[in-house]
Protein 1
Amino acid sequence: MLGKIRLIGKVMLVLSGVCFLLSMGVGSFAKETKGLVIYLSPNQFDEFQTTASMFIRKYVEDAGYEYKEMVAGNEDVVLQLSQLENAIVLNPVGIIIAACDASAIVVGIEKARGKGIPVIVFDRTIKETEVDFSSVAGCKRIGILAAGEIARLLKEKYGEVKGTVLSIMGDPGDMYTVLIEEGFQETMAKYPNVEITTKIAYGWEASKAADITDDWLVAHPDTDLLFPHAEHMAAAITSVLETRGYKKGQIIHVSTAGMPMGLDLVREGWLQATVEQPLTAQAKGVAMFLDDVISKKKIETGKYTVMGFESELVMQPYGPELRIPGSVITLENVDDPKFWGNQVGK
């Protein structure tokens, strides 16, 4: 009986110790952080977004912050608006957003900033309200680079820049595709013998891009070039070309992003070129300025080097914007280890 009493006493002592530790807070034994940063991701259905999440987490945590992520399903605008409301309630020290819709998210951004929470834009430019910082790829420049490569490929085929081109945008609520198309159209305007038709794959859905291409090729089987604005759409389009009996390169195929699947399409000959969106550098760019943004320090404009990329920080009407350039990828340089698509998915 005495042994049982002693055992019960020991158990009670241990429980008392646990209760004391809990009263002190578990966080007392956890790694101290500078505060909570929340990332609102638009989707996790393509390699760009899954890799973006991985590197944003890494660089935010390396900078000393606690990290939390909310994913808006499959580009669900309403869900992302609700998630932004929930993020505001958590009172983080900062919110990073890759917006499903750059216009729809404005009210939520203004509410967050009204409560003193800095808002950082990742990848998808938001122009309709002020934000605290943007780290983007220079999307218009990607369109310009793509146009230059497209002009080169058409000249290689015909001896002059001419032909028929189908450009397939992603969702027009995403400024990434809007700015790519803008840069592409402005550059191609100098080539009057190139006929360009633009279609939209709403929601960035690969199946929609495939259907657009399939219908287009019924009416225009001799199309010279296809330009889907992301490689997950290019992969679906490749299946259409194979099904219809086209050979590799019979229709020139150019895209953007630099995903592992895109680099494989270049190696296989189904893509003649793609323009990399420098994902890892964009994520690193967020972390480089995170302390200054959160502490509301003035961010100096000018030239910066981000992971080897010569970049520029400019002041826009909507706030400071870090622009990181992309690179054209072809069969000649596709295996270069600097491309983020060669750093993941292996």
Protein 2
Amino acid sequence: MNTPPPTYSAPDPHRRTAGGGFWLYLPLFAALELAIAQHGPSLGIGLYVGLLIGLSLHSSLARQEYAARLALALTLLPLTRLLTLVLPLLALPPLLGYLAVLAGSALACAVVLLQLNLRFSAVGLGLRVPVLHLLMLSSVPGLAALHFAFAAPVAVVSGELLARPPAPAAPLALLALGGVLFIGGVLEEVILRGVVQAVALPLMGRRALIFSALAGAVLHVGSSPSSALLLIGLVGWLFAHISYHTGSVLGVALLRGSTNVLYLLGLPALLGTPDSPALLVALAPLGMPTALLVLVLLVLMSLLLAWVLVLFGYLCARPTS
């Protein structure tokens, strides 16, 4: 007789006390990121290995099943962060390094899903509200412009593909890098909103939405200004609500991946970054029209605000089941 896999959507009667300790991991992640920013990746590797061991012990020694599952899900964060710290030290070509990080993160996510006995539907990998997903994708330009206004990224391709005349292989390399950035954004949302949030909900209730949003923000401490951290947290909170109310993480995952491509590749090539010239500067004989640029960014951010209002109206109008 085949026994169906257990479900973990029922609220934990002990969640008021059991979930409290997990909030302490958030400032710990932030402290580790600050240490990496101050002392380099070598120290960060040792610290994240220690945190990974600690979360593994927490998962194996926890008395409550919900707490053990959440600790196991949280191991994905130091695992993926370790990959981004270790692989650059191997002196791999940038694109190959991105691919290795992506492959390792996907493998770690698959292993944790198997350990947690979670199906794809349990982490929201399903097209349940296609109209909403299409509506969300229309906000990619505004969301990318908002990120760019708060923190212009360091050029991803570090000059070879953006600052110099493109070689024959450059368009193909840019296309490949765009694909890696897109899939990386999708995987990030699957981990945060699909795995971590889904496993935290039975333990923390609705506070799990805030937890997943803050978990995504603290991993950028040390590498992003405070204004960008606030934006990352707010966007993560919005994404958490969308995935929670729709039961699908697909829309926010596609939105994150598309925004990554435009924010990290498209806008730096068009507008320029501290280490990459702007395409508009080269095209305009008298320099980039700053007023026009500011106007375009304001229009895109206004469209994003309108999208947020329409989105919440759509969610509020949906009948609750």
Protein 3
Amino acid sequence: MAKEKKNVSGGPAARGDKNGKGGRGSLPRWVKLAVYALITAGAAALVRPAGDWLNGLSAHPLMDWGIPFRLAAMLAGLACLSVLFSLIIDHITPKTSHGKTVRSIVDSAVKYIIGIVAVMWGLAIMGVNVTALLAGAGVAALIIGFGAESLIADVITGIFMLFEHQYSVGDVIVVDDFRGTVTRIGIRSTSITDAGGNVKIINNSDIRSLINRSSSASVAICDLGVLYDGEAVRKAEAILAQAIQKLYEGHKELFLEPPEYKGVQELNLTENAAILRVTANVSENDIFTAQRLMNRELMMALEDGGCGNPPAELAVTNVN
């Protein structure tokens, strides 16, 4: 099931980056690691003295005041382990889109595993016989297994997507008419953010088909109208040849290669115009920026050269 969230935090830039730094308003991960380590050490050191002191004050036979400190030490220790593991994965994985995907899925899996360990360990600290609980959970596990069928499908689909390289973090994809950039791939779900900052969260097993717009170069198209006249077309073509080269020289970071004049795309007799087409290979992330730039610069070049858009004709009908 897909969920959508409106952007309320300034878009993807508000989230943490890949270099161990948090987003705006959050702490860097190395600071979190130090804080969790201090909490773990402090809680572990206070388990016996603070527990004995509080037990002496309350003298309640069913209450062990060392349990809260052991739980705090356990939770802080697991959080410290999670941050440390995340930093290690960041360091050993390549700084590529596939590397980002691996980090995203591994981080998601680690959080699930640590959550399960925290629950079982916490029950053990509180005196629950976890071994007996697990041994007697056969029927319950069977019932839960049927209910978790979609969860298992999500996890398996996520693993196959990782190995098949269907898409990676940073790719622009289209799923169910929703176009956006993949910002996170989890063990169970994928997050896609569109140009407006709206986030779509979709379960991995629900992604039946998609279009990966980043798998190859995208084509930015610019159509320009000139007067329906052979001389006007030849003049416009000469102007475009110079304008296209100037456009490419000034924006090489935007175009993968020089834009190409394709020729007369359409003859519009109604508007008395010949439509000239120019295309350029660009990254999918830059396609709209490139189109806007080409429309502006090439239109202004034709205007300056005296080959602007043909004037609209006013049709007058005499009605008796």
